Amino acid sequence: MLTVEAVSSAYGRIIALREVSLEVKAGEIVALVGSNGAGKTTLLRTLSGVQPIKGGRILFEGAPIERLEPHLRVVRGISQSPEGRQVFGPLSVEDNLRLGAYRRQDAGMRGRLDHVFALFPVLAEKRRIAAMSLSGGQQQMLAIGRALMAAPKLLLLDEPSLGLAPLLVDQILAAVRALRAEGITVLLVEQNASAALAIADRGYVLETGRVVMEGSGAALLGDPKVRAAYLGP
Amino acid sequence: MSEFLQLVFSGLTVGAIYALIALGFTLIYNASDVINFAQGDFVMIGGMATVFLMSAGLALPLAALIAVVAAVAVGLLLHRLAIEPARGASPVTLIMITIGASIFIKGMAQIVFDKQFHSLPAFSGDAPIPVGGATLLPQSLWVLGTTLGLVVALYLFLEHTLSGKALLATAANRLAARLVGINVTLILAMAFGLSAAIGALAGVVATPITLTRYDIGTLFALKGFAAAMLGGMGNPVGAVVGGLLIGLLETFGAGYVSSTYKDAVAFLMILFVLFFLPRGLFGGRSVERV
Ligand SMILES: Nc1ncnc2c1ncn2[C@@H]1O[C@H](COP(=O)(O)OP(=O)(O)OP(=O)(O)O)[C@@H](O)[C@H]1O
Ligand SMILES: [Mg+2]
Hints:
The structure holds two protein chains of two kinds.
Chain A: E1 2-11, E2 14-24, E3 29-33, H1 40-48, E4 55-60, E5 63-64, H2 70-76, E6 78-81, H3 93-100, H4 109-119, H5 121-125, H6 136-148, E7 154-158, H7 166-181, E8 185-190, H8 193-199, E9 202-207, E10 210-216, H9 217-222, H10 224-231
Parallel strand pairs in A: 3-8, 3-9, 6-7, 7-8
Antiparallel strand pairs in A: 1-2, 1-4, 4-5, 9-10
Chain B: H1 2-32, H2 39-55, H3 60-83, H4 91-112, E1 129-131, E2 134-136, H5 138-160, H6 162-172, H7 174-179, H8 184-210, H9 217-231, H10 236-257, H11 264-276
Antiparallel strand pairs in B: 1-2
Helix pairs in contact in B: 1-5, 1-6, 1-8, 1-9, 1-10, 2-3, 2-4, 2-8, 2-9, 3-8, 5-6, 5-8, 6-8, 9-10, 9-11, 10-11
The complex binds adenosine-5'-triphosphate and magnesium ion.
The site of magnesium ion has 3 residues of chain A, from helix 1.
């Protein structure tokens, strides 16, 4: 579904991605793990088109998309729940969700809204409340829900569990698994590598802008080097 | 008492015009962080184009309509030719660009129009309407009514249409707006077009009262900017209240103190807000000191 070929990207003179290649097949959950500053967020931003690409190609369903404007990538079926939630603070929860469907104002929107409310019932309770007055965990759910409103084929999730209580982390990861069961392909970025690899079909380890390891979720979880570097003793 | 009421009427009338200009600042600032100092020139284009089209024989409604369309075209061109190519530049650079654009528009206006002061006949005559011992000019009602109508229309647009919501979303979080698929370039163009239309309409209804000339935009931009700052840059309610307050302060200052310093009121207000109230009365996003 998604093929990333030797993608490079930089912030001014700071090179953040060095010829990163990876693949996400339809129906998979792929985890992207790596320590602080490895380039995980930069890769997702490059995939969505909000970060300029310096070299390489991005193929989505066989077509190159690396020159497309961000909104056209949403139209193609890629949507992202960004790092740090980035909700529309002054707007209501429901408006946030409806804007998630900005490029898909179709008959299915009502159903998707109900679906998001079923996935995260607390959002239904707070639908009229300004997004900025939600708790961190609720904002995270809103960011994911907003990304789902676009009815994506490929969902990019950047650190959905960051700063959340363990119970909420489990809830979010259960939601991610439920999404895959519905046929949504997921590229999941996590610092919480053990949790991410546990639910992933496959994973990649990113280090200072390069892919240094790849394998099935289980194999990476069991790899002594991965354990030493990212999972603690 | 009647003198007081008279000043209130005139203060609210000019204040309403400042409010519309401040709304123009607010729209563009929210969509892009750009403070568009060419905002006052839209007012000039609205007034001047109506004057010249009417003297060419067109009826007021048609002349006004064409004038507004012309201002919108100038607004869109300003965005396309001056703002968009500088995408990503610092706010200070963008402000410089709008100041340059403003000078350019004034230069063009001298050529397309002329350098004289012009007025328009009042839309519904000049017979003053007595109210509580003071009098209200029918044109003041036009100004206040147009302002009210535009504020309501803008509110309905922002709160009840998808494009309006997209503009609010872009103002709230540009990155998230791009990620949900909003074309922020288009939204910004829309903000310039809307601001130009609002400014031009203000110019049409104000001209019978304030007169107009190619360079009148500078003063209007100053007043509108002061109003937007006072209300809190980026806050539409603040823009309207700020506009009315500046209008009232200015008129009362001129009425009770001296009209010599009338235009200094707005300038002093800008300094006051910068030093003591950087987020304005209604808490906008604070403006970087430039
Ligand atoms: N806006 C920016 N300007 C300059 N450099 C940046 C910027 N954002 C990220 N970087 C640099 O790019 C590199 C990759 O950062 P990135 O945010 O992609 O890492 P990450 O893997 O997502 O890290 P984290 O786990 O902390 O979220 C880092 O060296 C970082 O310092
Ligand atoms: Mg990151």
